[in-house]
Every structure is written in C-alpha cells, then in structure tokens.
Amino acid sequence: MTETIKTGKKLTVSKEDYLKAIWSLSERSYEGKSEAGTKDLAVLLGVSPPAVSRMLKQMERQSLVAHIPYYGVRLTEKGRAVALKIVRRHRLVELFLWQVLKYDEHSAHDEAERLEHHISEEFEMKIDALLGFPKKCPHGSPIPSREGIF
Fold it and tell me: What's the predicted TM-score (pTM) here?
C-alpha cells in the first residue's frame, strides 16, 4: 500500500523507490556527505539523469526532498520518515519470504521489492509479530522500528 502524505495524496511506487534510493545513497555517506548525487540515483534506479531531475522537482514541491541542482539531494524529515517505512516493509517482507516461505535470498529480495509498496500497516505488524520482532533482514541489515529508529 503506497504511503499517503499529509496532503492526502498517495505517493506513487516510483516516488517511494526514489525515496528509498536517496536514503540508501545518503546513508552510505560518501566522503562525509549526506546528499545523494543525481547521477548515482540515475544509475541505481536505471533512469536517465533528466528523468531524475524532473522527479526531484516534483518531490521537492511535496516537501519530500531538498534538491540542490548539480550538487545532490537530501531527504527532508518527511521524506526520511516515508523512506524508512518503505525500508522497514521491504526488510520485513524479505525476511518473511526467506524464513517462512523458503525463498532464496536473491528471490526474496526481488519479491520484496515488488511487495513493499502494497502491504498494509496491519500486514506489516503481523509479519513483524510472527517473526518475533526481528532486528535484521536476511542480509544482516537492521530493520527500523515503526518509529524509524534502528
């Protein structure tokens, strides 16, 4: 289930993917920077740099990111909260697929990429409880809490 922002509009799967990608790139903190480069985003998402620029302008109007052309993009507090919800859902679904349904790690990741956008909060909480409130996904990455804390 795509996230709904304060305006009542649901975010598209594409925007959720961008938020998660920006979070992922900025968490790696290349050379101490907390911004994600637009070129890196284009490569990670498999889109053109102009497509990234267009999407970032839309997301900036929604107060999800702060974009500095030719420098990079940073998540706003609102954007980071949504990104962490998506990361949490991905990692919980991935672990569920791997542990319960016996998917291999690669297949679990690919399937979680598709499902992370479409599960409800209730389903997320049930997976979390069923798995015993896990702290890490199959790859060892931490699963954020519902409050976005690691």
Answer: 0.86
87-130 matches 13-80 in CATH topology: no
Mind listing the pLDDT tens digit for each residue in 32-69? Answer: 556 788 899 999 999 999 999 999 999 999 999 998 87
Output phi, psi for 65, to 5 deg: -140, 160
* R_g (Cα) of the chain, nearest Å: 15
Segments making up each domain of the chain, as ranges: 13-80, 87-130
- Burial class (CB within 10 angstroms; exposed 0-12, middle 13-18, buried 19+) of 111: middle
- Could you identify the residue written with the tokens 């542990």? 99
